[in-house]
Amino acid sequence: MTQHIVCKVDELPVGEMKAFAVAGENIVLYHLEDGFFATQSKCTHMLAPLAKGKIVEGCKVQCPLHRARFDIRTGEVIDWANFPPGIQLLNIVRGEKSLKTYPVSVKDGAVRVKIA
Questions:
Q1: Is residue 1 pLDDT above 90, yes or no?
Q2: What tens digit of pLDDT does each residue of 23-75 get?
Q3: Is 32 helix (H, G, I), strand (E, B) or coil?
Q4: What CATH number has the domain bearing residue 50?
Q5: Residue 103: cis peptide before it, omega within 30 degrees of 0
Q6: What does DSSP say about strands 54-56 and 25-32: parallel, antiparallel, or unpaired?
Q7: Do the Cβ atoms of 39 and 61 come closer than 8 Å?
Q8: Pick from 37, 67, 92, 104: CA 20 to 30 A from residue 111's CA?
Q9: Strand 77-79 with 101-102, pairing
Q10: What's the pLDDT tens digit per position in 72-98?
């Protein structure tokens, strides 16, 4: 795994997220109260761009399309797609799948993400 500088610490305020392309991977970098975290950029339900979603309850990302929610720190599914009513029928085909996460570190004021 190689570490790649994604941005400077002060370029992403606490409570915000931003999409980046890093070493051939599309990721979303999140700045939470307890640090920086990175996940794949697309929701595992219907591949909607998570960066267009929102951070909720301080540590979850909500997909903008069907409102699936994931733990930003672990990638774990918190709530599977539930909007609009009836989307649950599609969930039979599109089973729950966690987000891929990436190790993040901060050194010399730069946020670094490890990409395999």
A1: no
A2: 999 999 999 999 999 999 999 988 899 999 999 999 999 999 888 999 999 99
A3: strand
A4: 2.102.10.10
A5: no
A6: unpaired
A7: yes
A8: 67
A9: unpaired
A10: 999 999 988 776 676 666 666 667 899
pTM (two decimals): 0.90
Report the C-alpha dihedral over residues 91, 92, 93, 96, rounded to 10 degrees.
Answer: 50
CA 39 to CA 50: how far, in whole Å? 9
Angle at 102 between CA 7 and CA 58, to 5 degrees: 75
Rounded Cα–Cα distance for residues 60 and 74 (Å): 10
- Show Cβ contacts of residue 25 under 8 Å, excluding neighbours closer than 6 positions: 40, 102, 115
- The pLDDT of residue 13 is 97
C-alpha–C-alpha distance, residues 24 and 21, integer Å? 6
- Count of domains observed in the chain: 1
> Do residues 25 and 88 make contact, with C-beta atoms less than 8 angstroms apart?
no
Residue 25 sits in which domain range? 2-115
Q: Is residue 103 within 8 Å of 4, Cβ to Cβ?
A: no
Q: Which has more pLDDT, 104 or 86?
A: 104
